[in-house]
Structures are given as C-alpha cells and as structure tokens.
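User: I'm putting together notes for a lab meeting next week and I want to include a structural view of one of the chains we've been expressing. I don't have a solved structure, so I'd like a prediction I can at least talk through. The sequence is below, exactly as it appears in our construct file.
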Amino acid sequence: LSPLGKVMERLAILEEEKNAADARLEEEFRLRADNEERFYREKRRVLEEASAEIAAATYNFDTDTAKDDKKVAVNATISKDSKV
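Assistant: Thanks for the context. Below is the predicted structure for the 84-residue chain, given as structure tokens.
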C-alpha cells in the first residue's frame, strides 16, 4: 500500500475501534439506567410498605387508645352511678 493508503487504513481501524467502544459505552449506560430504575422501584416499594405499616400501627394505637378512653369513661360513669 502507498503511504496514503496505510494512513487511510489506520484511520478506518481507529474509527472501527471508536465505534466498538461507543457501542460498549451505550450498552453500559443502558444497563446502568436499568439498574437505577430497578433500585428506585425497590426503594419506593420498601418505603410504601414502611409507610403502610406505620399508618396501620398508628391507626391501631389510636383505636386502642380510644377504646381505653371509652373504658375509663364507662368505668368512671359506673363508679359515679354506684356511689349515688
């Protein structure tokens, strides 16, 4: 090959290597985006479950407290009525 032919061949090889590297980077970027999406979906699921558990525990605490308050009020009324 002539000197110009050798230069053109080397440039073509460099271009192919660049394209292959770009393709690997695109695949890596796609995999990273998939991984990020999976992470945030799982994080959201965990937070939603925790929120539901906290809300349920709070609701149960509130209803238990309300039941206890009613029992105290009923007992106080009974005690008050029995003294009369």
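A couple of points you could mention at the meeting. The mean pLDDT is 83. The chain has one helix and no strands.

User: Perfect, that's what I needed.
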